[in-house]
Predict the 3D structure of the following.
Amino acid sequence: MMTLPKQLEQQLRTELVEYREERQMPFISPMEELIQEEAMERGILQTQREYILDLLQVRFGEVPQSLVEAVNRLEDISTLKQLLRQTISVGSIAEFEQLLDSSTDR
């Protein structure tokens, strides 16, 4: 084994400490991970709802409050995604309401 001069030994130790700190992964408990996943899902749900309502407003003007409330009650991401795609081609607010009713009857 070779002995390093004090200055090189100190430099090597400093670089090793920095390397370990850079590589260290933060610990996330299962509870924290679950909370993060739930927050992300809530964000996705809210974004999909906003997209639907914004698109309806752009296409048809004012959206009835009852329809806003019905869209905001939706909790299924796949239903919201399907409704968003259908909102692009729907012909009227009334037609969208029928789609909404049929999608929530399942």
Summary: The radius of gyration is 27 Å. Residues 33 and 39 are 10 Å apart (CA to CA).
